[in-house]
Design goal:
By secondary structure, this protein is mainly alpha-helical. The chain contains four helices and no strands.
Length: 78
Amino acid sequence: MFKNKHLKKWATIVSHHLPRLSLREVTGLATWSFGMVMTDSTSITRVSQFISELNQEKSNTVRQRLKEWYQDANSKKG
């Protein structure tokens, strides 16, 4: 899930404060909020680039994961 210790800690804090969220919801919210705080940006491009570098993933993979997290079920493909 998270390779970066600071992002893992952030997810733990999110989970602690919002215990009713599912693991998927915690992961999405933690990724987005950590990325926005660290980059001082709400740009999906900037956040996904930053997170991809931390987790050693492709930027487009992270970008797609973030988009799927914030879209409602009716907007998703498939």
